[in-house]
Design goal:
single chain; 532 residues; ten-stranded mixed β-sheet; eight-stranded mixed β-sheet
């Protein structure tokens, strides 16, 4: 079919700038496909910046017999650690044991135990937890992460913050990840490989005509509308995946999603070591208490159905109280709402498998190609941060069945920007940075390495003093860094910077954030004036 010569045709048009959309964009661009991605807000502005920040196999999912998902996630932890040692690192998790721990009543494991061991009345026996941890250690073939050990808590740093009734704990390995930075680095790498990344760009409609998708977009900053043409469409809209299917593409697909809200609270630092706690409740649910940003502790998450994607998820007073009460069953120090310094909440767009509860809904990802609108549309349901790279590879398999893809999988082990150094190399890189830039404090140098890895020195350039980095916005955030974030990392507003590119919003006051926002607005105005 012939098309006018002046039409630019893209192989792949992706709707959604979360981890799934940006992961697919990077993989596809690296295989030689032409790619455009539209995100209606900032990158990672919804679910992908509101996770529990863990690269984990999902110990809890073993109770649902989701062995494929857990095995894939366990293998993937180490693949990802090596590709991004600046924004991801190993952590040890302490699981205190007591005899009153219970299963959630509708897991396959609890039903089996109820059938064969009714006298347990839903309690989790110690042997079963050990069996789960044995599987966790061996399903994924660990090479970097240490295995499970048993801890006697009395007299230890791990036992000190806990109530005296906890005498024993199991300690196992998982990993931390800076979730929103992961998204931005995938987008940057996709752009470096030729993808066009458009933020603040809403897809108004998509229709298949004359053998191509015709996609209409509008930029929310300047109101500009544009038309794009693509051979295939990818719907990675996260919580809005259903809206895109029905309202944007007008597909007749019957696939459904279940929106499940996960909320978190952040307090001042509650204990003096760098390990996480895995707490099990009497209701069968679990929460984590995790060292966060040096001076804080992150506690989460909840699982609640969230009926409407248009409603901004917020950590409700009831969810705050639930998390506080849960943590107070373990910690000596009893927490109140006065201890909360920040909350955040995200919506997981899970594939609707008919599960009876939000907790039980599958965390596995589901990819469906739909051609009911005439052209190939790939809808992405579910997914976890840990398995985003494997999801992208699976998506490229589906895409390759619809349009030609010349190259095979390539992303395993290929570092993200700034990640080209050894897994255990953060301390050495931080020392090098401080030696080269003596004006950096230890906190500042460590923060830059954790954010930018080997690119921290590229960003600082030939600066001889802090004054060479321009205006100081507080908490080690300088004009030089903001310029980098605007030029290279798609940041447009202060919120993009202090809550997604970093978490300095925890350390900056409202006036400081407002001053930063005004400065960035002036930069955007100057740039748009110069372009005219």
């Amino acid at each position: 079919m012939s098309h006018p010569q002046d039409i630019e045709i893209t192989d792949l048009f992706i709707i959604g700038g979360g981890i799934n959309g940006c992961g697919i964009a990077r993989d596809a661009a690296g295989r030689g496909l032409s790619v455009a991605l539209a995100e209606m807000n900032d990158l990672a502005s919804a679910t992908s910046s509101a996770s529990t920040k863990l690269f984990h196999g999902g110990l809890r999912y073993l109770e649902y017999f989701e062995f494929r998902l857990v095995r894939e996630a366990l293998i993937e932890r180490e693949v990802l650690l090596q590709a991004m040692p600046h924004i991801s690192w190993p952590m040890r998790f302490v699981l205190p044991y007591h005899k009153d721990m219970r299963f959630e009543s509708d897991t396959p494991t609890s039903k089996l135990l109820g059938l064969f061991m009714p006298w347990m009345k839903g309690r989790r026996p110690a042997w079963l937890i050990r069996l789960g941890l044995f599987l966790y250690d061996h399903l994924g073939g660990r090479k970097i992460l240490p295995g499970t050990s048993t801890l006697e808590l009395p007299g230890t740093a791990e036992g000190a913050p806990l109530q005296g009734r906890f005498a024993k704990a199991y300690e196992y390995s998982d990993c931390w990840v800076e979730d929103s930075r992961l998204v931005v680095l995938n987008a940057r790498d996709a752009a470096a490989r030729g993808a066009r990344i458009m933020t603040r760009t809403k897809v108004l409609s998509a229709q298949f005509e004359d053998g191509l998708w015709r996609i209409e977009t509008r930029n929310s900053e300047n109101g500009e509308q544009a038309t794009h043409h693509a051979r295939m469409l990818v719907n990675a809209g996260g919580p809005w995946v259903g809206d895109i299917i029905h309202s944007t593409v007008h597909s007749t697909s019957r696939e459904g999603i279940r929106l499940v809200r996960g909320s978190h609270i952040v307090t001042r630092r509650l204990y003096d070591h760098d390990k996480c706690y895995f707490f099990q409740g009497t209701d069968g649910r679990i929460i984590f208490a995790i060292p966060y940003e040096g001076d804080f502790t992150l506690i989460g998450t909840t699982d609640a159905d969230h009926p409407d994607a248009a409603q901004k998820p917020e950590c409700t007073p009831q969810e705050q109280d639930y998390l506080l009460t849960f943590a107070n069953q373990y910690f000596k120090r009893q927490l109140t709402r006065e201890d909360i310094v920040w909350t955040y909440s995200g919506v997981r767009p899970l594939y609707n498998d008919g599960a009876s509860s939000a907790t039980a809904a599958t965390r596995d990802y589901t990819l469906k190609v739909d051609t009911s609108s005439g052209g190939p549309l790939l809808n992405i349901f579910g997914g976890k941060i840990t398995t985003y790279r494997r999801l992208a590879e699976s998506a490229l398999d589906k895409i390759g069945a619809q349009i030609p893809v010349a190259k095979g999988p390539w992303t395993a082990g290929v570092p993200l920007p700034g990640g080209d150094f050894p897994v255990d190399g953060v301390a050495a890189l931080t020392s090098e940075l401080r030696a080269r830039y003596p004006f950096l404090t230890d906190f500042w140098a460590r923060r830059l390495v954790r954010a930018y890895g080997t690119e921290a020195a590229v960003m600082l350039g030939d600066a001889q003093s802090a004054a060479d980095l321009g205006r100081d916005f507080g908490a080690t955030l300088t004009e030089k860094e903001i310029a980098w974030l605007m030029a290279r990392e798609f940041a447009r507003t202060a919120e993009d910077v202090v809550w997604r590119r970093n978490k300095l919003g925890l350390r900056l006051g409202e006036e400081q954030i407002a001053a930063l926002d005004g400065w960035m607005a002036q930069c955007r105005y100057s740039a748009s004036s110069a372009a005219e």
